[in-house]
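During the no-cost extension, the postdoctoral fellow (Dr. R.K.) reprocessed legacy sequence entries with the updated structure-token encoder. One reprocessed record is reproduced below for audit purposes.
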Amino acid sequence: MRVLDELAAMKGQFGRAAAARAGELLDKIRTSRFREVSDWIRLHEVVLFLRAYPQSARVLRIADEILYSFADRLKRMDREAFEDPEVSGIAGTGLSTNFSYEIARGLAARYGRAVRIDWENYQRPDRLGPVLAKLIPMAGEDATVEPHVNWQEWFEAAHGNLRWLLDNVDPQTYDLLEVPLRWELGDAAASRSRSRIPRREIFYHAGPFLKRADVSLESEFTTPRIDVKKLKRPDRMLDLIADTSAVRYRELWGFTHPDAAHVYHADLGRGVDVFFFGVPREWRLPLRAYHAGMFFKNGVPIGYVEGLSLFERMEVGFNLYYTFREGETAWLYARLLKLFRERLGVTCFSVDPYQLGHENDEAIDSGAFWFYRKLGFRTTSEKIATLIEREEARIRVDPAYRTPPATLRRLAAAPLIYGGGREWDGFELRRLRVMPRMAADLVRAKHAPEETRYLRLMQRDTKFRARVIRAGRRPAAK
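Re-encoded structure tokens follow.
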């Protein structure tokens, strides 16, 4: 345990001596055995962090050896505790949940019988009845005359294969069935322990992490343009992105319905790659343009981003997986905003209250509000602005002061905005009860291969912009 404590303390330690010590500790802990599930989880997360933010090639190599051994090392453990959403996805464990038709179909195709119906947790297996009755005539006859039909037996006697069900029902029907799936990860590359993308050059951290105080959005936006390249064969990358979310019990609209014809890659620097894309015509939102992406640190997936754009304003959803929140979060966020600014022409960025902590305890615990506030975001509420001034005054007097959770929840009651004019402060899309009428060129651009031109045209159409903002305005928050 002392070795694990010391290893955890190596996160953010730099220099030759720190790199050597981190390697020694990893070597010592390589064959260690733990009794408690919490210790195994802690070991996994510390080593995964060091794999993404290594001080040396030796640290990276031994970290991978430890992570790749988890499936074998957990064989005799009670795996239920590893299925909590905060830690799910470790090699050698599994998870049970409902996935959408598209994600379930992809998982079944890639992982075969490792993904199956979780009958033990299927609350309403009777919903399968009408479907199986049509697909298996004798099951339909049984259901006609018998009061209690065992649909699991009929399913397994006929095929017992999830892919068969997915091949024989439409997506809407499947989603209504609410079929829980059991995914045994084993040593699959989709596990958090093993998920990687190839990277030729590894960024080894020889000096301190870039802190929030080192980052200025205004300054970042003036740096050289980020180079972007289109992927020629993106299928494997899109599968990896979908799997990376699935092992965390997550689905994102763009990851479920990606535009495979337009997937882009950008090297953000310091070992970070981001892959981003929109959605194809049939899955687009009626008004806003949609983009999503996943980012990787030295080949390890560390989080994702989602952007909903209307004129020059983008609502940004940013999630850095909890394992990596001691890394260079502010710098990474600034680079992502710069990328979208350059690619889409958006200059105003909005953060939804949920991201700040409204009905989101995870954001409260991480102090998400102050992360954005210290980057220069402002509130759209006059009442909250007064509360911010009070809290910032307390911090100036006492740097050790921490805003209480109850106050953080009050601070998170309204969106935060960076850039843009005050006309966006009172805008709420849900107030648009009727789809605003677009000019013909906007309609055509909305249905073009990509939504980039659609956004650019919107940004130049000042009359349409004014009409939409006026229709979506609400009284200023008090």
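The CA atoms of residues 238 and 255 lie 7 Å apart. Residues 37-52 form the longest helix (16 residues). The remaining legacy entries will be reprocessed before the final report is submitted.
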